[in-house]
Amino acid sequence: MKFAVGVERVGKLVGVATVGRPVARLLDDDSTVEVTRTCTLGHHGANSKLYGACWRAARAMGYHRMITYTQHGETGASLRAAGLIAVDELRPRSGWSTPGRPRQDRGVDGIARVRWEIRAGDYTVAA
Predict the structure, then answer these.
(1) Which structural domain range is residue 53 located in?
(2) Is 124 among the domain residues?
(3) What is the CATH number of the domain that holds 114?
(4) What is the model's pLDDT at position 122?
(5) Alpha-carbon distance 95 to 109, whole Å?
(6) Residue 66 belongs to a domain
(7) Burial class (CB within 10 angstroms; exposed 0-12, middle 13-18, buried 19+) of 47
(8) Could you state, in chain order, the average pLDDT of each consecutive group of 10 residues for the chain (127 residues)?
(9) What pLDDT is attached to residue 82?
(10) Domain assignment of residue 125, yes or no
(11) In angstroms, rounded to a whole number, what is the distance separating the alpha carbons of residues 67 and 44?
(12) Are 56 and 5 contacting, i.e. CB atoms less than 8 angstroms apart?
């Protein structure tokens, strides 16, 4: 994890987000961060505020791109509201387990995903 942010409403923490290095090795270029988790208590706009705060913090730390993912069927409304753009549709993965490093299924394998990103400067993205 590189950093975490929170959003509050009337002095009460109502959402958090964690940001780290991109999980995908090919995207880990030292100028990109990935929002790995967000969690809110359901307050309207909290998720969008978290993504916006993550991007501002990432920019202040010198990063030029921020990515995250949604699962197939999620609208991505909070991501669009924060300025992120859907850039790639990813096929479902079979899982993280390998013979050399067996892992348990966490319930997210076999689900298609969408990668979203926002970039500094020009917002041109390559899919």
Answers:
(1) 3-119
(2) no
(3) 3.40.630.30
(4) 56
(5) 5
(6) yes
(7) buried
(8) 97 98 95 98 96 98 97 95 97 83 79 96 51
(9) 97
(10) no
(11) 22
(12) no
Q: Running DSSP on this structure, what letter comes out for residue 98?
A: B
Q: Which pair of structure tokens corresponds to residue 46?
A: 């909290």
Closest CA to 81 of 49, 116, 104, 105: 49
At 44 the three-state DSSP class reads coil
Q: Number of folded domains in the chain? A: 1
Structure tokens belonging to residue 10: 């009337």
> What tokens does 33 get?
């961060």
Q: Is 127 domain-assigned?
A: no
**Main-chain dihedrals φ then ψ at residue 66, nearest 5 degrees:** -130, 135
- Burial track 81-112 (b if 16+ CB lie within 10 A, e otherwise): ebbbbeeeeeeeeeeeeeeeeeeeeeeeeeee
pTM, rounded to two decimals: 0.86
Copy the structure tokens of residue 62: 């010198």
